[in-house]
Design brief:
The chain is mainly beta. Helix content is about 5%, strand content about 45%. A 6-stranded antiparallel β-sheet has the order 1-19-15-16-17-3. Strands 4-6-11-8-9 form a 5-stranded antiparallel β-sheet.
Length: about 270
Amino acid sequence: MVLTRERSNPQEPVRDTPESGMRRIVPRPLDRTFTVSGTVRLDPDAPAEQLDAFLGRTDASLVVTSTGSLEGNLLAMPSAMLDGDPTTRFIGRFDDQVGQAWRIRSGTPFAVDEIELDIVVGPRQSVPTELVVTVDDVEAGRFPTGLSASDTERVETIVLPVNAESATTVRIEVAASADTLTRDWYSNAFISMPFAIAEMRVGELGLAAARPGRHSLVRRCCSHRRPRCAVRISGDLEAARRGEALSSWRAAPCRCQRAMFVSTRPAAAFR
């Protein structure tokens, strides 16, 4: 038996997933044992910190959040600034750039002697021209970036002269921006394209290397009188960040009565 659910393209921000979970009752002529297999993808609408924790990039000691990132693109999450890879980028959201912000929280206090940002400047990016830095909920200053829009893409490094002997959180907000406009597909109005940050260096903070994932989820299979079947999810998590399905998820054989009840629901970082 093949069971499917209706889902949408995560890059379509105006449409939610029509069927976020699945509930099916399948009559069977006899009791029998089933082996369950299928595919699962990461949910790009899940909070970025939850996805980072699942992928093994961060844990409770380091949380990276933002006011929003490029819809449907798991590679554009704010943690991309701390992965040490200049080819990956934190990309903000379309429309108003002023007011967008990102925040880093560490469970271990760290010293701040300056903050370096590698900002992408080019024909397809808006460019922050002034940033407000807050350290532990206290404003540390407003800093012009000295950047402007450009017809050629490049990465510019700026240094924010922020100093703190001990800090646990750093928040940076866009206070002014040189916006690059594009026509919105849905409204046909002009909107601002997002900014992009290739790398951020502050203290000794950085991400852990993503490790191969094997994660257990619970899915209810069979009638309500039977115990739930534990489902094992495994696969290449870097491929999952690119939107590909995890290679497989399987459960031990599950004994079902004549009316088999299959139920899935959004869980943690999956859709």
